[in-house]
Amino acid sequence: MKYFISDTHFSHSNIIKFCNRPFEDVAKMNQTIISNWNAVIEKKDEVYILGDFVVRGTGKQANEILEQLNGKKYLIKGNHEYYLDDPEFKSSYFEWIKDYYSFKYNKKTFVLFHYPILEWNGFYNDSIHLYGHVHHKKKEYLRNILGPRAINVGVDVNNFFPISLEQVLTIVKSREK
């Protein structure tokens, strides 16, 4: 199974206030997101992280978090991936690290990027765009602008859980009615 998640902001205490996250501190936030992740992700599952995985954390902290998370992890870089440059960070925790990625599933193209895109590859051929970055801001506005096939996979709009490919397809189907 394929899963998607964005903007976990592990180790970033200011994100709690910035996004009004329901956590008393960063340790509780980190543990909740790790627990939610592992509640749905199995070792064989693929997890596409669409950026801002660890913010204000070190390479060592990123390693410690990645060691706790189930699944094969793929990273689409966001605007806060500074831990990647830390000499202590082990990039081998990710299957790969890219700026942008697309794949086909049941003849449908999926475009993964940290930022919402106004028009993406296959836009006129029913492709689906998964993004993050915006957290909970302008949710309805972005949906109206980007259309029914652009899905925010950020934790702030998905109850701090990753979402599955099947959930994405269900959301798109419900929006296209």
Task: Summarize this entry quickly.
The protein is an alpha/beta fold. It is built from five helices and nine strands, in the order βααβαβββββαββα. The radius of gyration is 15 Å and the shape is globular.
Task: Describe the overall structure.
The protein is an alpha/beta fold. It has helices at residues 14-18, 26-40, 59-68, 139-146, 165-175, and strands spanning 2-5, 46-49, 72-76, 94-98, 100-105, 108-113, 128-131, 150-152, 163-164. It has a 5-stranded mixed sheet. Strand 5 and strand 6 form a beta hairpin. The chain is globular and about 45 Å long. The mean pLDDT is 95.
List the helices and strands and how they pair.
Elements: E1 2-5, H1 14-18, H2 26-40, E2 46-49, H3 59-68, E3 72-76, E4 94-98, E5 100-105, E6 108-113, E7 128-131, H4 139-146, E8 150-152, E9 163-164, H5 165-175
Parallel strand pairs: 1-2, 2-3, 3-4, 6-7, 7-8
Antiparallel strand pairs: 1-9, 5-6
Give the overall silhouette. Answer: globular
Order of helices and strands: EHHEHEEEEEHEEH
Strand order in the sheet with the most strands: 4-3-2-1-9
Helix content: 25-40%
Q: Extract low-pLDDT stretches.
A: none
What multimeric state do the chains show? single chain
Strand content: 15-25%
Q: What class would the helix/strand composition place it in?
A: alpha/beta
DSSP E strands, number = 9
